[in-house]
């Protein structure tokens, strides 16, 4: 792969090589079409945990060899911290979302929703240099490719950036849904086991995609595509706003490379599948936790908080969903009422009254529009925000589980070492010099592992702490940005409503 | 019939000692399972207040007393429509049957809308040039004892038009273009108004549901924040703000629905019922016409000895019909004037109230927005 020299040449290339090796191993198989043939349970249920998920590699003790390369990644972390370009997250996510323009899900033409997001990577004020780098990513132009059940949607992913690690300043690629899932899988493989919170992509949906494939051109499939497009965009924003993930060459490749090799195990990979995996892993981990002696309550408490929050957000999501539906009802009723009023106005003999009634019908029509837009805002601003965070919290939980696994690995190594030492002692007693040497070698080997795993554990503790703090900050800002956006839209709506009433009043007064 | 009642209050020789515009149906209280309405009014002469308590049966008695069968001209009057009886369930909840029957009148706090409808009814009767002279109104408004115990005569309010064999008379062709037009228009408008009113009711019900859902969301968020012991103070603050925002959204829907009910809802409902009343009157006249035409035929066919009697019968009917028609003509003119005025009032106050609410809510949203923007960034 050709690359422009990235900002940190030595470490970067080393990392690149090891990761490259990993990638190639996974991409050979052929996978079928994107969403077809997957588990039938996912459907539209946001948090269905029924997805089958056999192929995921749980980052485990077996990956020791692969992790060699990754460890160097961890070493790089320290270098990153001293980097001249500090990728600060607060303003980025703020701006990123503020400038996204939403479109009504009922709009028939969705071929080029332009939702751009600006992300400026600025330095926090304490730092000395004033470098600012920009990264804007947009996911637009959903297009259907192919026919029938083999069809799939392709999205245009456009990037504008001043970051030197990219080959050019503005470029775009076409990606399909499974490509996004593939990106997630790669990132998750590499980073989750180090305690990083890897953002989750949107859910697969058989029902939604089938409608699109079959060619149904109704509002529900339009809505579905728009919902997915927006979710994919938010997903990418979250990925690049994480400084470690942005540096991952897979991310760069995803944004830049013209043709990506088809992602394989995403056939059954989905947000729901991932959640299921997390839950399975959690169960296994729960058995371990009992043994783990926490010197610091922080982790236990935090995990509890995270679990509670996840439950709460699910509940809230259901409530917001109900709100969205009621608003749609209001829309429908308003439209029907407006029609009746128009007919009444037409039949009215008294001229002034007739005109006023017809005006009224128009006002009601405009109000229906407002309701429609508001329903869309309710949905995209709130419901999807809550849904995203439920998924993200699942990712956070996974972090904690990874930490415990790491601890377990260290403990297991220690007990293995102990056993080796006992073997050595026995051999010494039995006086078998040839086997003794082997025993000594093994002890050395395991001593090194114990040291390594202990370091790993300490490192992951530190990472998890940092990640959780970063996540909390980001969450606060995210929610703040969204509530502001929501209020702004409410205010705009309200002001338009005031204008309509002001315009109608003289008509009503003119009746005689 | 106009509500402001500026000049129509005092009627020379009207016999009604009460000022029409002062009539108020203040509130309804539940006495066991009967609704009791408190009605206040003022004497024209000295402005002294009168207060009485009446039940629905008293109103029914009034309505039936207004009609005198031996006054044929009265048949041409469009009688102010009395709302149907409101049945309150013990928990004072609106059930679907009541909603279907009364529509907008079933909504609103503590039967407020229903009381207003009754109030309008009394005012309409008091303002009617002929009906206001009926002693029954005075009795209802001022007597210490409630009059409803007397079993009223059956009168004309048997909904003749609902009797099947009478129905075909409805389409009987008229001899007078004015009335034929009026009947056709009325038929059309009655149907349209009814449908429009029902659809407006659906809108209001949806608004009420949204109000409840918003409140639910607001409370859920608040409950969560109160329970959670999170170290993330910034996040808690944002959630609380969000909760307040949804509280305002709930207020918006609540007030909008209230405004809808008390102005346009009530107005449309009254229009609908008044149009039905006009329909009744026109139908009575049409029936009389059918009778008259039958009498004419009988007269023509009658043998010489019977002819005289037939003629007399026919003449009586003719006189009745003519008297009724001229009254009807007046009433129709009056009806159109007042219905336009009523609707105008409803539309203007609807618009003004909604405008007020919208402005108030916009100010609240602004406040919230400012507060949220002031929240420190992490």
UniProtKB/TrEMBL annotation, chain B:
Q: Which SUPFAM superfamilies match?
A: PX domain (SSF64268)
Q: Which UniProt keywords apply?
A: Protein transport, Transport
Question: GO molecular function terms here?
Answer: phosphatidylinositol binding
Q: What sequence ranges are listed for the domain PX?
A: 15-148
Q: Which InterPro entries match?
A: AH/BAR_dom_sf, PX_dom, PX_dom_sf, Vps5_C
Q: Which PROSITE patterns match?
A: PX
**Is the keyword Protein transport assigned to this protein?**
yes
The record's listing under Gene3D superfamilies reads: Arfaptin homology (AH) domain/BAR domain, Phox-like domain
The signal peptide, as residue positions, is: none
Provide a GO biological process annotation.
Answer: protein transport
One matching Pfam family is Vps5
Identify its protein family: Belongs to the sorting nexin family.
What is the official name of this protein in its record? PX domain-containing protein
Q: Which organism is it from?
A: Denticeps clupeoides (denticle herring)
The upper taxonomy is: Eukaryota, Metazoa, Chordata, Craniata, Vertebrata
């Amino acid at each position: 792969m050709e690359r422009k020299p990235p900002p940190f040449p030595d470490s970067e290339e080393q990392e690149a090589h090891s990761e490259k090796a990993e990638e190639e191993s996974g991409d050979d198989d052929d996978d079928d079409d994107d969403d077809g043939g997957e588990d039938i349970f996912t459907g539209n249920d946001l948090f269905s945990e029924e997805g089958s998920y056999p192929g995921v590699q749980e980052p485990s003790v077996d990956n020791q060899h692969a992790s060699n390369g990754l460890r160097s990644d961890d070493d790089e972390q320290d270098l990153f911290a001293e980097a001249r370009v500090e990728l600060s997250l607060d303003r980025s996510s703020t701006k990123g979302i503020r400038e996204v323009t939403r479109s009504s899900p009922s709009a028939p033409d969705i071929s080029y929703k332009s939702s751009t997001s600006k992300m400026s990577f600025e330095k926090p004020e304490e730092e000395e240099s004033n470098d600012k780098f920009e990264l804007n990513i947009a996911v637009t132009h959903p297009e259907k490719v192919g026919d029938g059940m083999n069809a799939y949607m392709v999205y245009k992913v456009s990037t504008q950036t001043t970051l030197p690690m990219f080959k050019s300043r503005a470029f775009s690629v076409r990606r399909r849904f499974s490509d996004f899932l593939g990106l997630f899988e790669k990132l998750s493989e590499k980073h989750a086991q180090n305690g990083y919170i890897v953002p989750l992509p949107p859910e697969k949906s058989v029902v939604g995609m089938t409608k699109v494939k079959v060619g149904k051109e109704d509002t529900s499939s339009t809505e579905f595509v728009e919902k997915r497009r927006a979710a994919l965009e938010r997903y990418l924003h979250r990925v690049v706003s994480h400084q470690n993930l942005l540096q991952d060459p897979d991310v760069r490749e995803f944004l830049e490379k013209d043709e990506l090799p088809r992602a394989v195990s995403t056939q059954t990979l989905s947000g729901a599948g991932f959640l299921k995996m997390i839950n399975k892993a959690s169960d296994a981990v729960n058995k371990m936790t009992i043994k783990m002696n926490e010197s610091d309550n922080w982790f236990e408490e935090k995990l509890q908080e995270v679990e509670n929050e996840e439950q709460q957000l699910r509940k809230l999501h259901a409530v917001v969903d109900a709100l969205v539906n009621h608003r749609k009802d209001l829309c429908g009723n308003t439209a029907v009422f407006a029609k009746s009023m128009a007919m009444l106005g037409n039949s009215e003999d008294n001229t002034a009254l007739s005109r006023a009634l017809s005006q009224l019908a128009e006002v009601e029509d405009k109000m229906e529009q407002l309701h429609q837009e508001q329903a869309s805002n309710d949905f995209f601003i709130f419901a999807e925000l809550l849904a995203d965070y439920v998924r993200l919290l699942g990712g956070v939980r996974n972090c904690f589980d990874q930490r415990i696994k790491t601890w377990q690995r260290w403990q297991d190594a220690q007990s293995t070492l102990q056993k080796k030492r006992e073997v050595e002692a026995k051999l010494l007693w039995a006086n078998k010099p040839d086997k003794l040497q082997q025993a000594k070698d093994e002890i050395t080997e395991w001593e090194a592992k114990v040291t390594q795993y202990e370091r790993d554990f300490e490192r992951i503790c530190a990472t998890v702490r940092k990640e959780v703090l970063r996540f909390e900050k980001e969450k606060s800002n995210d929610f703040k940005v969204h509530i502001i956006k929501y209020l702004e839209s409410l205010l705009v709506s309200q002001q338009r409503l005031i204008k309509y009433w002001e315009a109608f009043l003289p008509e009503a007064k003119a009746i005689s | 019939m106009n509500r402001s009642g500026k000049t129509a209050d005092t009627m020379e020789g009207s016999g009604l000692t009460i000022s029409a515009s002062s009539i108020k149906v203040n509130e309804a209280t539940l006495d066991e399972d009967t609704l009791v309405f408190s009605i206040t009014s003022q004497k024209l002469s000295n402005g002294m207040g009168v207060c009485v308590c009446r039940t629905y049966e008293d109103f029914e008695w009034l309505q039936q007393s207004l009609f005198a069968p031996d006054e044929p001209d009265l048949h041409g009057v469009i009688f102010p429509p009395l709302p149907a009886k409101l049945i309150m369930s013990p928990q004072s909840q609106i059930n679907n049957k009541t909603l279907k029957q009364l529509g907008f009148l079933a909504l609103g706090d503590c039967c407020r809308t229903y009381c207003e409808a009754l109030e309008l009814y009394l005012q309409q009767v008091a303002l009617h040039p002929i009906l206001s002279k009926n002693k029954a109104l005075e009795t209802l408004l001022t007597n210490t004892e409630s009059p409803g115990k007397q079993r009223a005569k059956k009168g004309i309010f048997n909904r003749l038009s609902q009797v099947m064999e009478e129905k075909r008379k409805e389409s009987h062709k008229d001899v007078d273009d004015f009335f034929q037009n009026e009947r056709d228009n009325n038929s059309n408008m009655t149907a349209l108004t009814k449908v429009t009113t029902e659809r407006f009711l659906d809108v209001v019900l949806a608004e009420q549901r949204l109000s409840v859902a918003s409140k639910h969301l607001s409370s859920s968020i608040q409950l969560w924040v109160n329970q959670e012991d999170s170290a993330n103070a910034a996040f808690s603050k944002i959630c609380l703000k969000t909760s307040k925002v949804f509280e305002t959204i709930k207020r918006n829907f609540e007030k909008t629905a209230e405004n809808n009910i008390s102005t346009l809802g009530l107005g449309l409902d009254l229009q609908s019922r008044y149009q039905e009343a006009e329909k009744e009157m026109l139908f009575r006249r049409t029936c009389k016409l059918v009778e008259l035409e039958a009498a004419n035929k009988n007269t023509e066919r009658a043998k010489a000895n019977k002819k005289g009697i037939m003629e007399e019968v026919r003449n009586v009917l003719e006189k009745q019909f003519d008297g009724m028609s001229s009254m009807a003509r007046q009433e129709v003119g009056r009806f159109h004037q007042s219905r336009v005025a009523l609707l105008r009032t409803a539309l203007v106050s609807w618009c003004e109230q909604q405008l007020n609410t919208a402005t108030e809510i916009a100010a609240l949203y602004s406040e919230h927005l400012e507060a949220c923007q002031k929240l420190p960034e992490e």
